[in-house]
Fold Xylose isomerase-like TIM barrel domain-containing protein.
Amino acid sequence: MRKSITTILWGKFKDEKSFLETLEYIKQLGYDSVGLEVRMLPSRLIKEPRRVSDDLRKVGLENGGSYSVMRDQDIEWAKAAGSKLLWVVVRKKDCNEALKMLAEFTDKASSEGITVALHNHLRTCFETEDQVLSALESIPKLRICLDTAHAEAAGIDSVKFIKEHASKIGLVHLKDLRVKAPKSKIRFTTDFVNVGNGIINFKPVIAALRDVKYNGDLMVEVEALSGQSPNDIAKKSMDYLNKLLL
């Protein structure tokens, strides 16, 4: 399993220099790969995705995938940037339309050699286990980006899911849930906290991933900064990952 982190932690990058400096820091901490929030990259890198591939190569980081809003141009961007996986959040309210859109996008991406991983996400058509499994069953090439905090908040048993549906896991997003609360009360920017700062027991999650021989990315994805600097959170995340993976 590769240790990874998403760039969402650092927000919008003002230029390529600051992006490169962050990549260098991520590499220095010991991460193996990085997940890219395309909309938050500098405008030059959004327009010239091959530079992203070059920058990652410069610092020795793997491309762990990119977030996509399921536009056709996201596939072309991913190909040029070297992203072999796109994780997606389907925000369409009509669930039949959401499933149709997801199926069409998965087929297009797959034809270009790119995996689409559905992010289980609160307040979407794919938040519960039944909803996620239904999508995976109806779209054979689709995989899941299993998000531990969203799973916990939605009542999904991550350990059980991993053991029963290992072949469908394309990516794991690691973040913690601050408190157990009704789904409607969860606030992403305050309740989705850094690993080790909430109620999730990650040891059995890692054990289950090892049992099923998962060899993809363990990607830290933090939305609630709680007044901390992104660099500090990235370091604390790595320290916690190193303890988990002993």
User: Anything to note?
Assistant: The chain is about 45% helix and 20% strand.
